[in-house]
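Narrative progress, year one. The postdoctoral researcher (J.K.) led the effort to move from monomer predictions toward full complexes, under supervision of the PI. The following entry was the first complex the group processed end to end, covering 454 residues in total.
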Amino acid sequence: MAVAHGVAAGIGGMRAAGDLVARMQVSKGMRLKPAKEYVANKLGISVQDIADPVVMSEVREDLDLGRVNAVPGAAKGIDAKFRIAEVLDIEINSVNLFKKRTGIKS
Amino acid sequence: MAKYATRMGDGFRVEMTEDDMRRDIEQGTQDAARRGKINALSDDHLKYLLEIFKSPDRSVGVERGKEVVLSYDSGTTKFNRCNVSVSKIQSLQIYERLMGSDMLELAHIDYSFKPVKPIVVFEQPILEQALLMTIPPLFYGAMPNLGLYSQPDGPCVNPGDLLPKGKIAEARASYEEQIEHAVKDMVYVAGRMYEAGADGINFDTTGAAGDAEFYATLKAIETLKKKYPAMCVQMGMASEFVLGMHGELYYDGVRLAGLYPHKQLELAQKVGVSIYGPAINIVTNKSLPWNLARSVTFVKACTDTAQIPIHGCVGMGVCGVPLTLSVPIDALTRASKALVDITQLDGL
């Protein structure tokens, strides 16, 4: 079911900017259209590029927001979320917790 | 006359003429409009639905540019239920990297808040480790599942035993006692998982046990949002209609029994729910055109007025998807497309 939904209607998660649009719904309660516009604006792309894996692959590489393929040295987990919080200018619970636990100052 | 392949609500294939499908679509939307006292779909939307069902393609999809966010209830239990031996964290990585999920959800295999309470200390480190390794928003999810609080599974007298004896007052008292237990458990588990770093908490199948469960969930969310104002709360419903098992429960002056999705949404927004998921039940002896038209009508009444994102519960037996364990791709993708294109859903 998950795969069928993904093919039929999904933005594509980390293949594109789906997780980033989701972040705007989660952290700011944005509905879909403003969430896509916000992310597109922050990334310097068009709204049409949001679901485009070719464009987003390069954007995610340039901004180090995490990619599907295992690339040495690229952000992969909490480090990618640090980058996402900074680029999208949002608070991420696990990022703030990590900072608190490691003594990193905001 | 040409016939088109479609299915019934139970998933079995059937062939229908264009006139039959058109009639079912019109009747489906009228059924929803009458029950919910909402607008039926416009002629344009009805024609659009008909064209989706006339398409000979196995799989259909939304137009480019209209893609939505996909969230997954009970994510980590799905692989185990199919006998695939992966850990919870491996499940999350599969969703994240191989299935294009926009949001992730960690869950206990016994997917209710009550059984998580004694093992929450074991769930927290899994979540903490998963948060270090994954990138999309990661929620913790469970069901309120009020039924677990009555005997033999819980401490309260079972209202199912009291009601047939005409002991209505006693049954209501039992529901009220169950609510207290359920609220405590939900607040405790959700709070601990949020403090462990979860991006949000999902209350899945809310209202499955009726108005008492819906009330308990609203009270739990109200409490949680006061303590954690930044917590993202996702509330997915169990059905289109809140059953009046208690019958006399009110929240903020609104009686809960009998509420349809657009009214459920109003209360959800009041208590601070961040993402709301309507669930419209399949009628198994009606066709998918009838069921989907009905679902789209109810969901559109939500998306037209919502101030928060709406993620339709488009799964087995809800929102136009047949009630079957193995969901046919032709049915599922038609439900996805119709709901997104017509209602402008924010997610599925």
